[in-house]
Specification:
Largest sheet: 4 strands, antiparallel
Radius of gyration: 16 Å
Number of helices: 5
Order of helices and strands: EEEHHHHEEHEEE
Length: 177
Amino acid sequence: MNSGLQVRVDGDIVGRLWLDTRKRFCFQYDEKWLSTSRIPLSLSLPLRREPYNDDESHPFFANLLPEEKMRAIIARNLGVSLNNDYSLLERIGGDCAGAVSLYPVSGGSEQEPGVYRQLSLDELNAIIGELPKRPLLAGEKGIRLSLAGAQKKLPVYYDEQHFSLGLGDAPSSYIIS
């Protein structure tokens, strides 16, 4: 059994998501997050010390993932099952909606420092043209993006001069769709 995925909001550790022996989702808030009286990850997951079971936690985390055709293409490109929400989160959960990110707990270098790869307008246009075949650039080294929904879209960082792709744990600031 793996040691799970570290769940973060704005880089702060919120808790841990893992699979139990029956491959069902479990989520538990981090003690430090609880002790600082932070807000809950979701209204459906109020702050508490006890772990949340699959019925309680799975819907929130599954809703961070893309849907329909986009999800099918991503799963195929990554070589994981379309129905394996955990594997999808493990592979593309680095920059999700609401400043949420998920990284392997024992992944060592899996969580790379946040850096941005600046894009020329030609590069950006080429990437947008590739989105039907490579949604969210799934599988590209250093890129771990996930946005819910079925539309083709690309999270980017814009600094008022240039568009960039976030690598490692660098967050996006805009969504191009």
